[in-house]
Amino acid sequence: MTKPKVCVLRSDGANCDEELFYAFEKFGASPSMVHINELRNKSKKLKNFQILALPGGFSYGDDIASGKVLAVELISFLKDEIQTFVDRKGLVLGICNGFQTLVRTGLLPFGNLGKMDATLTQNDSGHFECRWVKIKGEKSKCLFLNHNEPIDIAVNHGEGKFYAEPSVIKKIEDQKLVIFRYIDQNGKPTQKYPDNPNGSINSIAGICDPTGRILGMMPHPEKFIEITQHPNWRRQKFTKPHGAFIFENLISYAKKS
Amino acid sequence: MIFEVRVKSNDEKDPKGAALLAEINKTLNISSIKKIQTAKVYRLENIKKEKVKIFAQTALFEKIDQIATYNKSIFPKSATVIEVGYKPGVMNPEVASILKVASDLKIKIDACDSSWEYAFFGPVTKSQIDQIVKRLLVNDTVENLIKKPPKTLKISGVAQKVQTVPITKLNDQELMDLTHDKLFLNLEEMKVIQNYFTKIKRDPTDCELETIALTWSEHCGHKTFRAKVTIDGKTKAPFISRIKKTAKNNQKLIISAFDDNSGVIDFYDGFAINGKVETHNSPSAIEPYGGAMTGSGGVFRDILGTGQGAKPVISTDIFCFAPPDLNVKELPPGCLPPEYLLRKVVFGVRDYGNRVGIPTNNGSVHFHPDFRAKPTVAVGSFGLIEKSRAKKGKPKSGNLIITLGGATGRDGIHGATFASGEMTDRTINVSGSAVQIGNAIEEKRLIDAILKLKEDNLISAITDCGAGGYASAIGEIAKETGAEVYLDKVPLKYANLAPWEIFLSESQERMVIAISPKNLKKVQNICEIYNVPNNVIGKFTSDKKLKIYYHKEIVCNLSMAFLHNGLPQRHMVGISKIRSQRSKSGQSSKPNNIKIEKVWQKVMAHGNVCSKEPIVRMYDHNVQGTAAMHPFSGQNFDGPNDGAIVMPILGKPYGLVVTHGLNPQLNKIDPYWGSIWAITEAVANFVSVGGNLKDAALVDNFIWPFPDEESLADLDKSVDACCNMANLLNMPFISGKDSLSSTYRYPNGQILKIPPVLLISVFGKIPDVKKTTSSDFKKAGSTIVLVGKPDFENLGGSTYLDIIKSRSGDIPKPDLQSITKVFSSITSGIKSSQIISCHDISEGGTATALAEMCIGGDVGAEIDIEQLKSKDDQILFSETPGTFLVEVNNENIAKKLFAKVPYYILGKTTKSDTIIVKGSKTTKVKVDTLKKSWQKPMREIFND
Fold first, then answer.
1. Does a structural domain hold residue B132?
2. Which terminus has fewer CB within 10 Å in chain A: N or C?
3. What does the pLDDT read at residue B429?
4. Domain boundary among B225, B247, B267
5. Could you tell me the mean pLDDT of each successive run of 10 residues in chain A, 257 residues long?
6. Residue B495: its pLDDT value, please?
7. Quick one: A1 exposed, middle or buried, by C-beta within 10 A (0-12, 13-18, 19+)?
8. Cβ of A58 and B357 within 8 Å?
């Protein structure tokens, strides 16, 4: 079976691109590093990929707001190409800054390219947080994730508080768009810091769009695909690194479709 | 015309405002203010009126959670509002992004700026606001209060003319007047310059004189380290030659030592690793946020500027400050309060390192009151490069000189010469322009582009623009060939720079590369993809001259030989200080009836010991996905580790290990043994995580007071300690840096010497990260062993004596007889997985190490120290470097592993929540009690 082609989208300030590239490569996809300027100058085209992956980082320094400048750039120059990509059932994954960017393009939560419905804003703590937390998956519209065990995962962000108006939150919940929530030691969704590291409404850590093909999350699954990446691999026994299944499922779905 | 757009959050919670309010309450004791809200102010110059709202709604604010106003205030009248922004001419990193968005949206804006408004609700007086502004909000060096809106944001002006300096006719006094506060050279050096120009029968231009002064500055010329020295009547080889000699140790590991922008050693699979540690004390003293940023930026470029371009994979940071609770009255004139410095330096490292995406995963913070006049701020970085591209490149005659990255402005003029001078109450005013704000994304673009240029084999030679800017970079890279430079080709931030200012400016995020002319198009194409400005500004020649042109005018024509070899070697004399505070074992003044349990808690809360977790959690130590040993691990992720390990090649088990050691307190008391302590500590940290000495190299940083006779003699002892220890351990020094300006002169002439710091960094390789260990106890029921020979008698300089307010001149010494064997027993015990946790003993002694291991493991412990035949307090709080606490499964393992070295089986880990120590008295203390004391200080400072 051919390996799904992944466009790992680089821009000025993307800095989790290499580990994301490695994750796709490790789990059987064929990733390419693509700078946004290469899409803008048409030397590379989205239609040649099955998966579009937006890595973490500080695109354009997160100036004005996290992911904002990149989101405006995507909409200004690549709106039609992205719309076509999504319409042709391409898969999209945004992690951390990639999630912030997807939300600011409007692709998440409702697939409204060019219209923002939710936001990711400054952590309640007021600063960047680098720590490991627990999240739990739940039954959602996502076409390739149905995992509901608690997992350990890294967060590395300053603006990760998921926020939308109550009516929008309700719509997100009603449509089953929430994929992951931050949980406490007892496995329950939590608003308590630092288990919920940013104060996200309803402990939301990751969501998808109504088609189930566009996924965004603040925590970093690509930073736990080797057991030795966990701070406690020397004391906790892991049979499998907890970030692996996200890539395995995404890639195997891409292979099938 | 300028349009103003103000944006604020709809949410009642305003984290930025709340953080400021907490600081005001705590630092200034002002409690009347009820709430602080913040708003962003954007100023857009010459945007079409009908475009303002569209631009704001698309780019500047999000109506989901924000509101905006146009050309009017956003806060109610009842609030007291102030606005803080960068001074004109100081680079605001956000401006480039705002202009980019505008251009992406095809909206024309001539210039723009952004700033912050703070609205105070509740009663607040004008003098309170003044205090808040002065103490917490505004740093005059780079920021100001915006009291009325500017008429224009554009900086205009005409280029300044080249001046000739009539140096040949000056007398001695006039020569000294010329150098004072500007060139920082001495009379002998000024006369050498005078003679040179007398001989070539003309006077120098300002550009020539500034270029010489820069190249000959202590910062660039390392005059003290190259000087012939006579110490206590005995003539000795220059410091630098002595240190370089150690690079003969373990030669097969070394790829390049003291030759390039960093030292390089062998790694695995055809790769090499490189390391460099820089200090950025002077800028950080007057503008800590920008100083820490540009310090990080500089050292990343040192890594990048090694070989044909290495990739930075680790960042480290080590700070020394006065204690945060220092009384403001004790602060020397012109100096900033330590708590402010600490917070702002941390924020600078955070905002720069996180954005560039280099994990900051090793560091420490130290406190001593004598750092009140100037902090020590050291930043290190370590990188990865293919071995085939790891050697320093040599430009060829005809190669082009290309500048990559940021534009040049007046920022940072005289940074190198300023860093070489003493600090006084006038420093902030005279040298303000020596400090700037970094632009992390500009640096990230540079890194991305240069790594691609390297991959495509397009770089003949590379160097960074650090201190001294182009003058230093081009002067150095073209030393063997000569160069022609056309300053009018350099992209400028604004027009009114004199040619010498362009050449010496220390504007950040610039690199210089040498390329073959046939590759120019390829280089330009790659730079274009990565949005990196690139300009050909000259070429390498073969006449060994530095010729600089500005349009058609020649502004500098110096022989490289004079520039680089004209500086006369200094002959310096050192005389050892008679140290008077010697007293036996600190016993003489030790109070009776010390309650171990209480003192233990205080030791844990001491600034040099307490947990730095709130700082570490703000640094991205996990980016690049390479961390194999995080700064903290353990049951609750809160046990501190001794070093950082990353796997720089994803998918391979190879580890790059980085550790460090320093103890300014001990260096002050005893420069020789204090330095031995620092090296031993750095190496012990490396060993403690599983490193093998034969796979590691050393990096030195001497941060010393101005070398008067006494400090020079101290420095000599420290250098001797470094060499002796390196030879004993068969380890090479391969990179280093000296910064000899840790002196402050009060207005009345009184001198304050800042404690001398010898910072030793160790970096090395490990074949499999699975064969490493962390410090957290892994389980209850294990055996706890003290390995190595502790020096219980000497407590001088220890945290413990500081707590009980006692003193001693006798500092702890490692046992040099057994130390290499101790190190190798630990290395092999970890490699064979028999040692399941390990922690080196340092500040706070065995008691602290034990507590930290229990905290990490969430277990208790029961140990017997009576067998150690000394006093309980001395056993628990002695700070002997090169000793370890280890966890093994049972006593038999310990007996086999440590058969050839001194060791003591202390006891066992337990399931309880308490540590029990049986000595002459029995001490019981809850792990949680110690943990709370240990975590409290930094939590308070960082409002965590």
1. yes
2. N
3. 42
4. B225
5. 94 97 98 98 97 98 96 97 97 98 98 96 94 97 91 97 97 98 97 97 98 98 98 96 97 94
6. 78
7. exposed
8. yes
What is the per-residue pLDDT for B416?
56
Task: Determine the residue among A171, A234, A238, A247 to mutate to test chain B binding: the one whose Cβ has the most chain B Cβ atoms within 10 Å.
Answer: A234
Architecture of domain A5-256: 3-Layer(aba) Sandwich (3.40)
What pTM was computed for the model? 0.95
The answer on B122 and B203 residing in a single domain is: no
How far away is chain A from the Cα of B240, in angstroms, using its nearest Cα? Answer: 38
Residues B63 and B32 in one domain: yes
- For residue B284, is it within any domain? no
Residues A16, A96, A142, A208: which is the catalytic one? A96
**Other CB atoms within 10 Å distance of the CB of residue B627:** 24
| Separation between Cα atoms, residue B485 and residue B468, nearest integer Å | 15
Whole-number Å distance between alpha carbons of B328 and B579 = 30
| Residue B430 to residue B409: CA distance in whole angstroms | 18
B17: domain range?
2-145
> Which tens digits make up the pLDDT trace of B220-250?
889 999 999 999 999 999 999 999 999 999 9
Q: Which of A12, A156, A229 sits opposite B531 (nearest CB)?
A: A12
A127, A131, A159, A238, best to mutate vs chain B, most B CBs in 10 Å:
A127
Closest CA to B835 of B824, B848, B826: B826
For residue A98, the SS3 value is helix
Residue of A nearest to B944 (CA): A125
In B572-708, where does DSSP find H-type helix?
Answer: 596-605, 613-616, 664-669, 671-688
State the pLDDT at residue A66.
97
Name the domain count of chain B: 2
Q: What are phi and psi of B130, to 5 degrees?
A: -55, -45
Q: Is A157 noted as a catalytic residue in this protein?
A: no
Cβ contact B625–A57 (<8 Å): no
CA-nearest residue to A67 within chain B is B59
Is the alpha carbon torsion for A93, A98, A102, A103 positive or negative? positive
DSSP string, B376-412: EEEEEEEEEEEGGG-SPP---TTPEEEEEESPB-STT
**Can you state the angle between helices B845-857 and B596-605, rounded to 10 degrees?**
80
A230 tagged catalytic: no
Compute the distance between CA of residue B792 and CA of residue B813 in angstroms, rounded to an integer.
Answer: 10
Does the annotation count A127 as an active-site position?
A: no
3-state SS assignment for residue A227:
helix
Torsion of CA B118, B124, B129, B130, to 10 degrees: 170
Tokens of residue A74, six digits: 């995507």
pLDDT for the residue B93: 87
CA of A236, closest CA in chain B: separation in Å?
9
Residue B491 domain-assigned (yes or no)? no
How confident is the model at residue B220, as a pLDDT? 87
B60, A220: Cβ pair inside 8 Å? no
Q: What is the ipTM of this complex?
A: 0.97
Q: Do A229 and B628 touch (CB under 8 A)?
A: yes
- Note whether residue B48 is domain-resident: yes
A58 CB neighbours in chain B (<8 A) are 354-355, 357, 440-441, 444
A5-10/A51-54 β-pairing: parallel
The rounded distance, in Å, linking the Cα atoms of B214 and B542 is: 23
Residues of B in contact with A24 (CB under 8 A): none
Tokens of B465: 């623009």
- For an interface test with A, the pick among B448, B528, B530, B635 (most A C-beta atoms closer than 10 Å) comes out as B448
Residue with tokens 């309170």: B128
Q: Which of A19, A129, A159, A220 is catalytic?
A: A220
Which portions of chain B are predicted below pLDDT 50?
Answer: 426-432, 583-587
B111 and B211 together in one domain: no
Q: Cβ contact (<8 Å) for A164 and B531? A: no
Start-to-end CA span in chain A (Å)? 12
